[in-house]
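Record pair follows.
FIRST:
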Amino acid sequence: MQERSVYRTGWVLAGVLALAACGQDSEPAAESVSLGTIGLSEQASEQLGAYAEQAQAFVAALDEGADNADLAHQAQALLDLSAQIIPEYVEVYPGCDAHLTAALKIREQWSALDPDTIERDYHQDAALPEPAPGADCYHAKDLVVHPATALALLNQPEVDRQQVRHEMAEVAAHAGAVRSGVGFNSGDGD
């Protein structure tokens, strides 16, 4: 009987503490909603599916020996598709607006950048503003950056086709992560 009273007292105390915490002022919550919870629009989800399929088709074409000009055309198509997806993503995560808008600038700049500069400035974010605290921008950013990197690699005098393959194989995984809403803010820098 005394044991039951201890449990009841514990529950009452927990309830009082919870109610007291509700009335306290606190900082506004950081944006941390999972895309898996709120979801992108059906159109954006379909675009992400098409994006992943196109990235896989790129890898298959590379493996089958497609020439660099054909591969560059496919990478450009992915870059263009990412520019359609990013605004939809920003609607869900407005805290990514400045970060992703800056990342989209690579669409006009990639041809003047070498792969090492793209790695530093875009993969590692040196040229990008910080996203809002808690905003999940990592995978969405890479939907833009990986095709631009592939284009820059294909634009080199000596093309490292294995590195191009790596960029495009990885981007399909980023599309899947954005689509499903899992694995955001990975710190691996790819």
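SECOND:
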Amino acid sequence: MLNLFHQTTVTMKQTTLFFSYLLLTIACFAQKADQRLQQQVTQLLKGFNGDIGIYVHDLKRNRIVSINADTVFPTASMVKVPILTGIMDKIHRKELDYHQVLTYKDSLLYEGVDILGSFKNDEKIELSKVMMLMLTMSDNTASLWLQTLAGKGTRINELMDSLGLKVTRVNSRTPGREANRNMYGWGQSSPREMASLMEMIVKKQVISDSTSQMMLRLLGRNYWDENAISQIPSDVFVASKSGAVDATRNEVLFVNGKKCSYVFCICTKNNKDISWDESTNEAWVLTRKLSKLLWEYYN
């Protein structure tokens, strides 16, 4: 009887995975390129000193722009969206509670300037606030703690696979992914897949309707708003996550205005400019120009 149950469970998982891939494939084929916008974006990228990928989806007209959209890039802190998915899955299954109290330990510290890392050993904090620190402040100590609570990278990667995302993976502290970690760092994805994950959240297709709505609200509280977000009027709803290491600068956004609704992701790697001045860094300047172009084009 137990063996029959196991076989049935495996079959159901395989069926769910098949339909996830099928729906994602059908959606991709149904989309049409916005040739005029594609030309404008291509022109904008000329002369960039690094590797770049962009994916844009106009949700109202189902038109896309795709430039190296399936190339794999380091996620940097964009990996925190998959980690969020893992935590929300645990909450949905009632294995964690959104407001449960956790106990911080010094062993969790990831050296840097994180807020959570300034806590004293044995201090208490709600899970919800750790999640806020991960997404709003991009706190790495909080993020690595949540990655463990989510079932570690292996479980998060299984969730990404179940959503039809083939290259979006957590690499750090994940068995069997050391080679990927050496190449891409903490996580990896493509512009198309990271934008698709955001879009699935928007369309309430991640875990459950209510879970997706909560995820979207959480992603709408970003402290780091001086690049792509800065080009969107302040009265427009934006959900986002950015990521940066020396030679990589990324950002994924959902923008919902009165006249427009779109998702876009810009990923870069092997950047020649590895400076940290937001006003002059080449990739960040380009990110602001792209965001401005898209907002003006759709409005």
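COMMENT: The domain at 31-71+190-298 is CATH 3.40.710.10 (Beta-lactamase).
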